[in-house]
Write a structure and sequence with these properties.
- By secondary structure, the protein is mainly α.
- 54% of the residues lie in helices and 0% in strands.
- It contains 2 helices and no strands.
- Keywords: Membrane, Transmembrane, Transmembrane helix.
């Protein structure tokens, strides 16, 4: 787990300047659906 690992990692290559606003409800809905699936299965 070296700090230099992030240079060639996915996070450094895919780092958007601004996250589009439409991604926030998508991510939150996926997380809520996943948590609901874990608790109510």
């Amino acid at each position: 787990m070296k700090p230099d690992k992030n240079k060639d990692g996915v996070f450094s290559n895919v780092k958007p300047q601004r996250i589009p606003r439409f991604w926030y409800p998508v991510i939150f809905s996926v997380i809520i659906a996943w948590l609901a699936f874990l608790f109510f299965r």
